[in-house]
Design goal:
mainly alpha
Length: 55
């Protein structure tokens, strides 16, 4: 484990983030998991797939 992570965890233990920031980060993580689940169950749309240009 890198020493930088230990310093960051010690700083967060002394000065925890505000409740609003915790909710904001949790919402971002949940949105990422939601997008992953949509792609996993329904697949990537054909219209958003990049086609290779043949030479």
């Amino acid at each position: 484990m890198n020493i930088g992570w230990l310093v960051r965890m010690a700083r967060w233990a002394r000065n925890p983030p505000s409740w609003g920031r915790v909710k904001f980060v949790a919402a971002i993580v949940l949105a990422c998991f939601g997008l992953y689940a949509i792609e996993y169950f329904w697949g990537w749309p054909e219209a958003l797939t990049v086609d290779r240009i043949r030479r």
